[in-house]
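Q: Hand in one record:
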Amino acid sequence: MRILTKSGMKALEADTAAAGKITLAEMMERAGAGAAALLGERFALSGKKAAVVCGSGNNGGDGFVCAGKLCEAGADTAVILAFGAEETPKTELARAAFERLPKEIPVIRYGENAPQALEAVFRADILVDGVFGFGFRGELPEGLRPLFRKMNESPAKKLALDLPSGIAADSGDAAQDAFKADLTAAFTAKKPAHVLPKSRGFCGECVVLPVGIDPRDAADYEGYEVLSLDEIKACRKPRAAESHKGTYGRLFALAGSFGMAGAAMMAVKAAQRCGVGLAELAVSKELYPVLAPALPEAVFCLYERDDLSPVAAAARRANAVLIGCGLSQSEAARDALQSVLHYAAGPVVLDADGINLIARHIDILKLRKTPLVLTPHPREAARLLKTEPAAVQADRRAAARKIAKEFDAVCVLKGSGTVIASPQGEFCLNPTGNPGMAKGGSGDVLAGMIGALLAQGIEPFPAAAIGAYLHGFAGDLCAERLSQTAMLPSDLIETLPEVFGKIER
């Protein structure tokens, strides 16, 4: 599924209108009429009380059209203007739609008669939010917050036009008292906030409505691809009856250190649960007695700091390599990383301390000869970009794109709504996952999963996108069963059989 950013959607609408395919006024008419028709499909309208709350921009214009259609369908409809008592709609399109409102629709100005507006909201059977749409940013105006609180308290069935007011389209950030819809009519395409875990709950059920723009044109505008479980099922290749462990690849992991053995264990176990044929873990002789009983299906490459030849040999024979989970940032770790990058014959996943070492010793990357996947969290991304985590979080898409280009690597920028970017300009936004995954070790599980998919021959960008989706999906299943508070990263690994069971059935 293709979703569009706010700027991508604006550009698509403007270019479509400029090309003479459909006017902006016609788009507004179709948006409002489509939203009213959607309500008519879901709820009986005749004789019901409907309140349509409109802002001063084009989202309000959509609301005016919707109100007129609800009135035509027999609903007792009122329009509430959520702006100053003396103001009129700010855009020409919205003003024209306002002037076409049927005369029998009462118009209540919240700014001059707040009690009447609040009563209409609370008594409504159907409540439509057309205040800000996808143009919202920052915080809701202080003067409008009592109105939005009453809208959220209303027992009405609630519809948002394009996006609930108070939700930022690209980041999914929710302002205090943001509108909580039961149903959202997304025009032309979904926006990031419709699918991001932190904001999709505000949208309720999200239905994409056409407004006259060819959806195929969306591919040329700024946005993301978003995977679904059905798409992953469709591209799955069943395991051949006469296959063997070599058929499913060999993953070599340089991971773990004194005090961080668990990171290596989780990464390898996650890789094994994702179907890799053989997992080989490089560890010091001191760690071997700790990890060997915990990973009975793995093979081990034992090495010492003054003899890295076993590590180099293992990197040469592997189909994919994972570096960094719990590795430490010692000089010995740096030397081992250099050796593996130099000799690796397959794609490499750099995670955690692997990324931190690269950020401090950037020239090491010149040694690699194969594709690279970087899996930073925001603080690690900031180290790579020589900036602050807040700057990364302020524009996650731009940060992921910059890392992908500067390091010629697929970037998996972790967090709520993981962003995957390729050096070629591809973007994917991950819709799965929840705050219960915000625990030490979750990233090690993801790195192992991506490494396993690479070892099985999946290309780096789809491997990263599929790995992120399945990782979050496992987290969502864990949260349902164990709660977000109590779930652990190790539970993600034990849930992967259930995840693959859903894919293979």
Summary: The CA atoms of residues 403 and 411 lie 6 Å apart. The domain at 229-236+244-504 is CATH 3.40.1190.20 (UDP-N-acetylmuramoyl-L-alanine:D-glutamate ligase).
